From TrEMBL:
Residue ranges occupied by any Glycoside hydrolase 35 catalytic domain in the UniProt entry: 25-230
Name by which UniProt lists this protein: Beta-galactosidase
InterPro entries linked to this entry: GH, Gly_Hdrlase_35_cat, Glycoside_Hdrlase_35
Family of the protein in this entry: Belongs to the glycosyl hydrolase 35 family.
An annotated GO BP: carbohydrate metabolic process
MF (Gene Ontology): hydrolase activity, hydrolyzing O-glycosyl compounds
Database matches in SUPFAM superfamilies: (Trans)glycosidases (SSF51445)
Length: 877
């Protein structure tokens, strides 16, 4: 990594202490809280819950495509009123790190880049390219003034603005020019607080372009059991300290055992990502690379932080309050501490850090992180002068051992020489610590005499109290259970009470069966459009939603689809009507797909967008950032050749003239060294072709007419334009058994398509405005493959998790004009879902009018499509 010296940006403290953010001379704990994933009616309650945790700040993405709904169509009203959300955050006493992108990742549709940007190609995205920067400028012209007006000191609480997001993961050609252009826009709009840019894989220059005035930040996502967290974090603390900058951890895991290790390693900002969970309403979940390799993000967006998507407090909230109380109590002393390796600071049989961290504070106090990375409870032994004390070290926790803390600052005598419990309060009346088990406490009087106290474990609501006397010094000590640690004293009493009530409100586990349903009659789709070739969904204005395609395949036996996604409901039709002979549901993620259409006269396909890629992954076309959705390019296969033989072998001491082998057929002991296969393909110069390679081991390099391309195991196809690809070479590390058959398919593009766009607003209107009928529907409900029904369902009052059971059925749930979620029931064709509970649809209490509407679609499979059950579980909000 190249470290470039930079001047300290405006608003950053001159020394690398604390978070280096204006108005915060202390270690800052920051929780993600995303207004676009929470109903507006719940913003205040969720902010109060976060504030009750003791965290001082929130980080907030601003998704570009949540506000620009179509090109030039902007919305900052209702649940998109980010200005109102920021004002509420300020009123709640929370500082804000604002993250307006333009790219945000966040497992959000397209990483917040509007879908239409991909129509101009993907080469300009996240680049210093004029057209892309003009589009970004239009977004920043609307978003940045909102932030500028709410900076700290101007009537708001925005203390930093993040540009871009984990740019070091992306192939930006000129990072300095790109990040510099974003920074220039921000400063032009009056952003005076620090500008930051986070590195996703530790490449500080890759994240910032080394642009002066842009502060590098780090995202750490270690395995919570990794023994190497501390040395990695300390390294980045050192690198940034050399520039006079603090270590800002803008994203990390949510477990407080890990967060404690970061604090002791010198992080000034600790911002666990998605500590407060949320929910993706609408067509907003992304398609991402968390599957094998691809998958769908669930509408339920939950990484198990201290608040669930439906507002339920989790046990981690108590852990948050304890750590926050410790950080608040130690204040600037902790923030200005210097981390060091403490390899011999303790002894334990538990798996622990490879190089523990100890923070040495200006007061002389130290904070030592002692993690148990295993599941089994253990003991830890610590030195106290010439003696040693021991304390329990439960599994999967991290003790923060405070030592040599002068107590005069709290109006108390002597020194806290060591505490294995967390010090959460101190004043002239005594010391309050928090622990779940037995703990050790060592106090030293001003004359040097010490006392060692072994404190029994407290229970919730049952505080353990001691009066400790050493010579003329007396201390009153109480040890409480973490559940009894209160939020910050500065919190407004009413807000604190509301937050506690929300956190403590019991939610019934009793599920209520729902039904019967009532059949509805949806409006017809818009009139068909004629297109010479199948358009992308975005080409017909479907940024989110569905596109319906239909074309004749009367003289075609096989189709080849390129780039199709996300969900393709395929019907093969025959005769003059709509009689179907086969149905199939595909989720190809853009991968080239062959489709047998023999005996069909027409093909009808509904292409539903689940979401656009939120990351850039080259293994599948649909995982590329900016990739489009819809049916893709559709070709009739008009011929095929076996081209698996007659490959000339080059390299690995192959002879002259070059021997001929099958593709991958060379035998050699030189495993891992490059081997090249070369041959001429039988192309006619007039048609398109597709070359398919079987058995690709990970990825191979293919050169067509001198142009190199990469072919992966997940997309082992190459498209050859007319006249291209006559000469082909395949180069790969030699591995016996790699590669195999090779096929060359001659193609002809399928033409004359009937297309019916169904963008999200039309989709929702068709369901919300569907006419009622007198037909009652009892469950279970059997459907035909490809059949779609719109149904009304009565629900009880309050917040609800709606759940469904059945097979080979997809259920979309609509309330008003909002798509609450989509659930894909048991089905062999179901792709992998990640990110949360993919079986739950959340109906917030504020949106519950007593009924929802369902769009239910049957899919082909081994059984009969069937919706068997629907039930509701109460939620706290």
């Amino acid at each position: 990594m190249t470290v470039v010296e930079q001047p300290a940006p405006a608003g950053v403290l001159p020394e690398p202490s604390g978070a280096g953010l204006p108005g915060l001379d202390e270690v800052v704990l920051c929780a993600s809280l995303f207004y676009f994933r929470i109903p507006r009616e719940l913003w205040s309650a969720r902010l109060a819950q976060v504030r009750s945790s003791g965290y001082q700040a929130i980080d907030v993405y601003l998704p570009w495509n949540f506000h620009e709904l179509a090109p030039g169509e902007w919305d900052f009203t209702g649940r998109r009123d980010v200005a109102a959300f920021l004002d509420l955050a300020h009123e709640a006493g929370l500082r804000v790190i604002a993250r307006p992108g333009p790219y945000i990742c966040s497992e959000w549709d397209g990483g917040a880049l509007p879908a239409w940007l991909g129509l101009a190609g993907t080469d300009g995205l996240r680049q210093a390219e004029p057209r892309y920067l003009d589009a970004v400028r239009a977004w920043f012209d609307r978003a940045l003034p909102i932030l500028a007006e709410r900076q700290l000191g101007r009537g708001g609480s925005v203390v930093a603005v993040q540009l871009e997001n984990e740019l070091d993961f992306f192939d930006t050609r000129d990072r300095t020019a790109y990040v510099g252009a974003l920074a220039e826009m921000a400063r032009a709009h009056g952003i005076e607080v620090p500008l930051i840019a986070c590195a996703g894989q530790g490449d500080l220059a890759g994240a910032t372009g080394d642009v002066p005035g842009v502060v590098p930040a780090c995202n750490f996502y270690p395995d919570d059991r990794s023994p190497f967290v501390e040395p990695e974090v300390r390294r980045y603390r050192h690198l940034l300290a050399e520039r006079g900058l603090p270590l800002l951890v803008t994203e990390t895991n949510r477990a407080h055992a890990t967060l404690r290790r970061l604090v002791a390693s010198g992080a000034g900002l600790v911002a666990p990502y998605l500590q407060a969970s949320g929910y993706n309403v609408g067509f907003t979940p992304s398609v991402g690379n968390w599957g094998d390799p691809a998958g769908f993000m669930a509408h339920d967006y939950d990484f198990h932080g201290f608040l669930s998507p439906v507002g339920q407090a989790r046990p981690e909230l108590a852990d948050a309050r304890v750590l926050a109380a410790l950080v608040r109590l130690l204040g600037a002393d902790l923030a200005r501490g210097l981390p060091e390796a403490a390899d011999d600071a303790y002894a334990t049989d538990a798996p622990t850090s490879a190089s523990p961290s100890r923070l040495r504070m200006p007061s002389g106090a130290t904070l030592l992180a002692v993690p148990n990375l295993g599941d089994v409870d253990a003991e830890v032994s610590l030195a106290v002068g010439p003696d040693r004390v021991s304390a329990p070290l439960p599994g999967l926790i991290c003790l923060l051992v405070l030592a040599e803390l002068p107590l005069a600052r709290f109006g108390l005598p002597g020194t806290l020489e060591l505490a294995t419990a967390d010090l959460v309060a101190a004043d002239p009346t005594g010391l309050t610590l928090a622990a779940t088990g037995r703990s050790a406490l060592v106090l030293r009087a001003p004359d040097g005499e010490r006392t060692v106290l072994e404190v029994d474990a407290p229970a919730p609501g049952a505080t353990v109290r001691h009066r400790v006397a050493v010579g003329d010094s007396t201390w009153d000590v109480e040890v409480v259970h973490p559940r009894d640690v209160a939020g910050p004293a500065s919190l407004d009493a009413d807000a604190d009470a509301d937050a506690d009530a929300d956190a403590a409100t019991p939610v019934s586990d009793e599920a209520q069966e729902l039904g019967p349903l009532r059949a509805l009659r949806a409006a017809e789709l818009p009139a068909p459009q004629r297109h010479a070739v199948a358009p992308w969904s975005e080409e017909v204005g479907v940024w989110r939603g569905r596109t319906h395609y239909r074309a004749s395949v009367a003289d075609v036996r096989e189709l080849l689809l390129e780039g199709a996604g996300d969900i393709l409901d395929v019907a093969l039709l025959t005769g003059d009507g709509d009689a179907s002979i086969a149905h199939r549901t595909l989720t190809p993620f853009g991968a080239t797909t062959l489709l047998d259409v023999a005996d069909a006269t027409e093909v009808a396909v509904t292409a539903e967008t689940w979401g656009h890629a939120n990351f850039d992954d080259a293994r599948l076309p649909g995982l590329r950032l900016g990739s489009l959705r819809g049916l893709g390019r559709v070709w009739a296969v008009t011929g095929r050749d076996d081209v698996g033989a007659l490959w000339r072998v080059e390299g690995q001491w192959s002879g002259r003239p070059a021997p001929l082998r099958t593709l991958g057929g060379w035998s050699s002991t030189r495993v891992g060294l490059p081997i090249t296969y070369r041959r001429t393909l039988p192309i006619d110069g007039e048609h398109h072709y597709a070359l398919h390679l079987s058995g690709v081991p990970g990825a191979v390099e293919v050169t067509l007419d001198g142009e190199p391309r990469l072919v992966s195991a997940h997309e082992p196809w190459l498209h050859l334009e007319p006249g291209r690809g006559r000469d082909v070479t395949v180069t790969l590390p030699h591995l016996p058994g790699s590669l195999g058959a090779a096929r060359l398919l001659r193609l002809s593009e399928v033409r004359d398509w009937s297309v019916q766009p169904e963008p999200d607003d039309v989709y929702l209107a068709r369901v919300a405005d569907a006419a009622e009928t007198a037909d009652a529907i009892e469950l279970p409900l059997a459907l035909e493959p490809g059949e779609e029904r719109v149904l009304a369902l009565r629900v009880p009052a309050g917040g609800l998790s709606l759940r469904f059971a059945g097979q080979q059925v997809r259920v979309s749930v609509v309330a008003g004009r909002e798509l609450l979620g989509r659930v894909w029931l048991d089905d062999p064709a179901r792709p992998r879902f990640t990110g949360g509970d993919a079986h739950r649809t959340w109906l917030p209490a504020a949106w519950n009018t007593g009924a929802v509407r369902l769009l239910v679609r049957g899919m082909a499979g081994p059984g009969v499509p069937e919706l068997r059950r629907a039930w509701a579980e109460p939620t706290p909000q």
